[in-house]
Write a structure and sequence with these properties.
alpha+beta; Conserved hypothetical protein from pyrococcus furiosus pfu- 392566-001, ParB domain; 3-stranded mixed β-sheet; globular
């Protein structure tokens, strides 16, 4: 279970860095499952970007093929 208060606190700190121009965050990491995508790394960054209204951001996408 994720602690909601801790999650929100971390997201708020990331948002402040973005607003101050101190953003040095890596791209989000997403896996392509064919019909949908799954965010594998960057949940806090992703939420901060959503709350800030950012429409575009760097993403690394990989596909796992058997």
């Amino acid at each position: 279970m994720i602690d909601e208060n801790g999650f929100n606190e971390r997201v708020s700190k990331i948002m402040e860095r973005y607003k101050k121009g101190d953003w040095d965050m890596p791209p989000l990491i997403v896996e392509n499952h064919g019909i949908h995508y799954e965010l594998n790394d960057g949940n806090h960054r992703f939420e901060a970007l959503i709350r800030l209204g950012v429409k575009e951001y760097w993403v690394i996408i990989w596909e796992t093929v058997e």
